[in-house]
Design goal:
It comes from Carboxylicivirga mesophila. This protein is mainly α. 51% of the residues lie in helices and 10% in strands. Strands 1-2 form a two-stranded antiparallel ribbon. A hairpin with a 4-residue loop joins β1 and β2.
Length: 77
């Protein structure tokens, strides 16, 4: 259960940084999250599979989100 919660928190953090256009390069984002680049790419793949329209912009050196995708977990009360 803890691994699931950690992953969900990581997804939320990735999306928050993407919305701010503040991810930096994939290597910088992976370092910031204390994960490997390959794990970051897997997280991005999962978010895309769930409907997030994410792409990396080399000019801005940040990932961008092109739709209103949100992810939520926990109690919605």
């Amino acid at each position: 259960m803890m691994k699931f919660l950690t992953q969900m928190e990581r997804y939320e953090c990735i999306l928050k940084l993407i919305r701010r256009k503040a991810t930096g390069t994939p290597q910088e984002l992976a370092n910031r999250l204390d994960i490997s680049e390959s794990t970051l790419y897997e997280h991005i793949r999962v978010l895309k599979h769930c409907g997030a329209q994410i792409e990396y912009c080399p000019c801005r050196q940040s990932y961008l989100l092109h739709n209103d995708f949100t992810i939520a977990f926990g109690n919605s009360d």
